[in-house]
Amino acid sequence: MPRVRAGMGRAELGRRLGYSPSTVASFEQGRRIPSPKTIYKAQFPVFFQGIAQLEKTAIELLMYDTFLVNGLVQTEEYMRAVQAMRRPAPEPEVIEQRVTARLVRQDIFNRLPAPLLSFILCESVLLRRLGGVEVLRGQLEHLLLVGQMRDVELQVLPLKCHEHAGVDGLFMVITWEDGKKLEYVEAQGISTGPHAARVHGVAMNNAESSTVTSSLAWFKSSYSGAEGGQCVEVAAGAAAVHVRDSKAVAGPVLTVSRAAWAGLVGLASSERGV
Question: pTM higher than 0.85, yes or no?
Answer without folding.
Answer: no
